[in-house]
Amino acid sequence: MNLLRTLLVSLSVTLLAACNTPGQPRFESMTPAELVEYNQSVGLLDQVVCKKEATTASFIRKRRCQTLGELTLSIYGTLDTASPSTVIYIPHN
């Protein structure tokens, strides 16, 4: 029973430590000045753009932030494949 308790305590401590490790900053809570400072320290596709938009379920506008790389992918999708709406016309001679 003592071994199980020791294992449980060490697992809990490990999980708590993992939750407190610094990861990517929360861009939604950054001020515009902090975003400018962050964007100056990263490359072009890692720069962050924030905008306020309403979801379909609510008229309340929430601040949503994405990197330019994520934004490009959400707009254009995968750039190396044709989209379903792409029409390729080949004239017959």
Task: Describe this protein's structure.
This protein has three helices and two strands. It is extended. The N and C termini lie far apart (84 Å). Strands 1-2 form a two-stranded antiparallel sheet. It has a domain of 54 residues. It is an alpha+beta fold and 93 residues long. The mean pLDDT is 75.
Residue share in helix: 25-40%
* Low-pLDDT segments, ≥5 res: none
**How many H/I helices?**
3
Along the chain, the helix and strand elements come as: HHEEH
Structural class: alpha+beta
Short structural description:
The protein has helices at residues 2-19, 32-40, 68-76; strands at 48-54, 61-67. It is of the alpha+beta class and 93 residues long. Strands 1-2 form a two-stranded antiparallel sheet.
Topology (SSEs and partners):
Blueprint: H1 2-19, H2 32-40, E1 48-54, E2 61-67, H3 68-76
Antiparallel strand pairs: 1-2
Q: Any key phrases for this structure?
A:
single chain, 93 residues, alpha+beta, two-stranded antiparallel ribbon, 3 helices
